[in-house]
Each structure stands twice: as structure tokens, then as C-alpha cells.
Design goal:
Helices cover 37% and strands 37% of the residues. The protein is of the alpha+beta class and 177 residues long. Strands 1, 2, 3, 4, 5, 6 and 7 form a seven-stranded mixed sheet that branches.
Amino acid sequence: MSETEEPRTTAETLAARVQALEAKVRALEDQVDIMQLVAQYGPAVDSGSGEAAAALWTDDGVFDAIPHLRMRGRDDIVGMVHGAGHQSVVHNGCGHVLTVPHIAVDGDRATGRSHALHLRWDADAGRFWVFQVSANTWRWERTPQGWRIAERINANLDGTAAPREMLAPPTHRPEEE
């Protein structure tokens, strides 16, 4: 403490500690809320609940399933889940399993990356097999209803560079070298 600074009172010290704890709790709540949001996707689409899946996105949210389909807005997501292609996969047995994302929160916005596995039932073999493993990048926004997905980009890890680069830590992006 310098000669011009006055010592903190016990109340000021306690108030500063409470404020720091509140910030930490909010950061932890944000992380958990976003993880819970991501965890709801697989069960929603595997149960054929298009409205529940779409409700995870903002009204104008984007889901880009490269190279198959780019959905913009909740109606597109409902349409995909209720569509013949997805319903056929669901009725033949499938599971969409998303890993816990890495999340970076910045105020009311957050970004992240994760993997997704698409498993399919093989009735003849009596087991599931991995149909697809993909890289995912995410943008989330805090809304009056809580955190929602603003954008999800899902690209098959097919050996090409672009999907691998999606998984690179933010501080090391190969395209910036």
C-alpha cells in the first residue's frame, strides 16, 4: 500500500470478496448452462422431437451440417428432424452423442468447439457402429430464455484440413501461420 492509499475496511474487503465470488459463480453457471444446452440436442433429435431441438437455437440460429444441409431458423431445424431422411434414421436406430464442448464465454456471447458422434444400429450384427465423427464449432448467445445456440457448424472429420482446423485451440489456428 502506498502512503496515499487508505487501508481497506473489513466491510470493503468483504464486499470485494463477495463480488469476486459472484463473478466466479456466474462464470460457472454460464459454463454449466451451455453444457446442458448442448447435452439436450442428441436426446431431442433421437426422439424425433423437432420442436425441442429447434428450441435450443435462437430464432434466427444457423445449423450448418456440411456438406449436406444448411438450416437457418427454428422452422428449418424442425423440418430436418421431422423430415423423411432423419425419421428413417431414427426408426432404424441411431444415437447422436455430443462431447462436452470447450467453452469461452465473453459476456452474453460464447464460442466453443467439440466432437459429435453419430451412431447407427446394425440389426444384423446386433450392435451399433460409428457412422460419423464430426468437428463442431459453436456460437451461443444469452437470451431472455437463457443460453441458446446462435450457430453450430458440423463437419465430418474426413481427413481434410478444414474440419481438423475447426478443433484447433483458438490460440493456434493453422490457417493463421
